[in-house]
Design goal:
The protein is mostly helical. It folds into two domains: about 15-70, Homeodomain-like (Arc Repressor Mutant, subunit A, Orthogonal Bundle); about 90-215, Tetracycline Repressor, domain 2 (Orthogonal Bundle). It has helices at about 20-40, 50-55, 60-65, 70-85, 95-100, 105-135, 140-165, 175-185, 190-195, 200-215. Helix 1 (about 20-40) packs across helix 2 and helix 6 crosses helix 9 (about 190-195). It is elongated. The protein starts with 17 loop residues before the first helix and ends with a helix. The relative contact order is 0.10.
């Protein structure tokens, strides 16, 4: 081809395969399930990436490529336990948060949130308690524990302000006090005490939160 004739520029095409995407999502799910089971069964320190790969029936490199190293795995387990999906979801995009903001009365907001807490704790409590135990010896886990705990506290301040806007919250309580009360009772440790150790049914736990928060917080 002569110098005066230019060829058509090459165009790179990305190959997209729905089957490949579905397979990748399934592999990620299997890795997260395996990691959750092992971390709850034997703890963070005793669980290796090789253990997780073996349980998920994938290669070790696949675990690294799909989620990451142990700190990343633990973060994903906490975030997905909160969201109820295989992906982290910002608080403001969660269905129960949207429903709480749309509810008109404080009791309705409390009811929606109490039901959401029960739903989350059935997934989250074992993972969160494993994170708490790992935080005692692992700096990365300790940092994640502090981050999640502080984030919960900040979200509870938003919830307190939302309750206050209904005009139904006790005037002798500050928003910070309302937030602290809810924060302490929506913790995995509270669920562990009543449901796991004392044998309360999840429905009873939900009713207890609704009744307690209504009595403690509302005028």
């Amino acid at each position: 081809m002569g110098d005066g004739v230019k060829g058509r520029p090459s165009v790179s095409r990305r190959y997209h395969s729905p089957r490949r995407t579905e397979q990748a999502a399934r592999t990620r799910h299997d890795v997260l399930v395996a990691a959750r089971e092992l971390l709850v069964e034997q703890g963070y320190a005793a669980t290796t990436i090789a253990d997780i790969a073996r349980r998920a029936q994938v290669a070790v490199d696949t675990v690294y490529a799909t989620v990451g190293r142990k700190p990343a795995l633990l973060r994903e387990l906490v975030e997905t336990a909160i969201s109820g999906t295989d992906e982290a979801t910002p608080a403001e995009d969660r269905a129960y948060v949207i429903a709480i903001r749309a509810a008109e009365t404080a009791r309705d907001k409390i009811t929606i949130y109490a039901r959401a807490v029960t739903d989350m704790q059935q997934r989250m409590a074992p993972v969160f308690l494993a994170l708490r135990d790992a935080a005692a010896t692992d700096p990365a886990s300790g940092a994640l524990w502090t981050e999640i705990s502080q984030r919960r506290a900040e979200n509870m301040r938003l919830f307190a302000a939302d309750l206050r806007a209904t005009g139904e919250v006790r005037s002798d309580l500050t928003d910070a006090e309302v937030a602290d009360i809810v924060w302490s009772m929506n913790a995995a440790e509270y669920w562990e005490l009543l449901v796991t150790q004392r044998g309360w049914a999840p429905a009873r736990f939900t009713d207890w939160l609704i009744d307690s928060w209504a009595r403690l917080l509302l005028a």
